[in-house]
Amino acid sequence: MWIDLYAGEGNLILPILEFIPKSERTDFFKSHIYLFDIHSDMVSKCIENAVKYGIPVNIAQNNIKPRDNLSDFPKFLIKCQYPIFHITNPPYLYLGYIRKHKETQKYFPYFEGLNKGYQDLYQIAMINDLRNNIENLIYIIPSNFLYGSSVSNKFRLDFLKYYNILKMIIFEIKIFKYTGTNICIGFFKNKDIPKEEISSFEAIKVKKKQTIIKKQYNLNPKYKYRAGSEFEEFFDYYKTTNPLKVIYYLRNEDLSSNKGNNKIKVIDANDYSNNEYKTLVLQVNDYLRDRIKSNILYVRTVDTGSYNGRAGLGIIEEAFHVNGIYVSGNTYRTHPIQIFIQPQISIEDQILLKDYFNFCLEYFRKKLDSEFLTTYKYSDAEYTRKYLGLTQVRKLIETFPIMNWDNINKRELVEVMEKNDFNSILTILKKE
What we know:
This protein is α/β, with parallel strands linked by helices. The protein has 2 domains: 2-225, Rossmann fold (3-Layer(aba) Sandwich); 245-431, no CATH class. 32% of the residues lie in helices and 24% in strands. It contains 15 helices and 18 strands. The strands form 4 sheets. Strands 3-2-1-4-5-7-6-8-9 form a 9-stranded mixed beta sheet, sandwiched between helices. A 4-stranded antiparallel beta sheet has the order 10-16-13-14. Strands 12-11-15 form a 3-stranded mixed beta sheet. A hairpin with a 2-residue loop joins strand 11 and strand 12 (276-284). It is elongated, with a radius of gyration of 26 Å. The mean pLDDT is 93.
């Protein structure tokens, strides 16, 4: 039995009727197809489309109905004669967006009770299927199902304990007219026995310029089934015994407790217009002046769309021609962020850290097709823009063993980076 609980105009299920002889379609439709949508206008269009396939309008009205299936699953379907195959493009709307927009806050109740902790409407749809033991699913969902961190960690752990991924088609091109969300089509089958195990499947990825690649995935529950977990494995294996600590942001409270007569030139990360940040001159005491000037690095967490503007570490003076990056209002992860390193390391060592960080990041981006990063949003850029998490920044810096190195180690690192030899970097890190 073919169902779509979020059917819209019925375009995913109704084409099945093309493969059914016209003389048999009505009987087939009666017992094999059920379609629902919360919007009555969509239900009306869906009925009209069924009629175009030769289904009498009264029969179509019996099996195509308005219903809120995010609230609860239509239990009567489970009692029907045939097993259920659910094919759908469910609603997706991120909880963070819902919180920020008054018109979407009506969706809050979906995330209460048993659904507390989930982060998107599509996750509510899929978990409803899980709770009703629906065996076969084909879902068109955001690709953050595979690549998202906080947005998807809990859901993947809960869902993939019960379902195998049979295959996936992943799109890094725009598919839907009214959304910039990158999507994937997932084919899921209920496991015989719930079990946390590596989820292995083959996927087809459709990239820019219609380039198609095939790739084998092995999602590990240890890393919350997130694609690209080899990056996380690198953090775990090569974290130094004496790691640098990172503090993010130059904040208002830093200024209020360190006022003085020293003038420091900064940009205001909260004041961006005409393609540039506003420049300010702050007056600070000796301590804060020295702290700002001695920490020359910032992190760009979001790709700009050009290869020269990819996420990574940069030098504040070179990028903005100021000494620091000040946050006058709320902190945002997508702004350029000044990083403060403890214990203090030399300017020369910070430049080496920048080069090491960006070298490792680009190596893994190429090896893993940037899958350990979160897709930022659809754009017409040459490549799919990605978001680098601040936790990932911290963990990668923690693999940089500068506190245990002498000048010989540093020269050796520079030499292997110049040769583009990542395996030799691993050898150097193992010596630490």
